[in-house]
């Protein structure tokens, strides 16, 4: 495997700890990010008896990550940074989903299988832009899952870490100097922090507007909305709901930007050390 692989695996092991069997995780029991189903398949293919994923060995973990994930996304053929971002997405959400985020970011057919067309597009693409686009699409997908309320905080932090580390890999592959790398990463952190602050302010304004709109109209009508025409009531309710939805969206975006700022700052600090 190429030289980014060990670094990518280090990042994945930070996110994928030991044995977990969360009742709300549709993947069921996992150990080091490997599900019981994947482990069963791996052992069956090798003529070995099934056993609990709790008993998986470090050699098996390494072999599964390579054969079931890295090889399937053609890790060694992807540009630095794009390789790690794609691999982590595949481990977290499945090979097909990880491939689709890459393909969508590249603007090629999203069939969930990385072939020559995807490799060619990835090779020609701006790796930094592609990584950021992939991670944004990944976050959008994860936010839409019903279990986001349970796992969302960890997922948001993970995707931010992957983005920052992947962008750092891409910058290094471009030949950025060791002195300039932490400066560039700190700049990314600062922009994300500024975006978080601005977005948070917008969320507060939207929430205040929603509350003020309802309260103001109630007061104006003597506390009784019955004197409003049907269309007026619908428009008022629609506007209020719209502001609430916008506020929720902006709050979530602010949290994502805050995590991105922290992740880029951490990678910048590591690059300085």
UniProtKB/TrEMBL annotation:
Keywords linked to the UniProt accession: Membrane, Transmembrane, Transmembrane helix
Gene3D superfamilies: Chitosanase, subunit A, domain 1
Pfam families named in the record: Glyco_hydro_108, PG_binding_3
Record domain TtsA-like Glycoside hydrolase family: where: 12-94
Span list, region Disordered: 192-219
All copies of domain Peptidoglycan binding, residue ranges: 98-158
Chain ranges passing through the membrane: 234-251
InterPro entries hit by this protein: Lysozyme-like_dom_sf (IPR023346), Peptidoglycan-bd_3 (IPR018537), TtsA-like_GH18_dom (IPR008565)
Record flagged with keyword Membrane: yes
Protein name: Secretion activator protein
Organism name: Agrobacterium genomosp. 2 str. CFBP 5494
Lineage of the organism: Bacteria, Pseudomonadati, Pseudomonadota, Alphaproteobacteria, Hyphomicrobiales
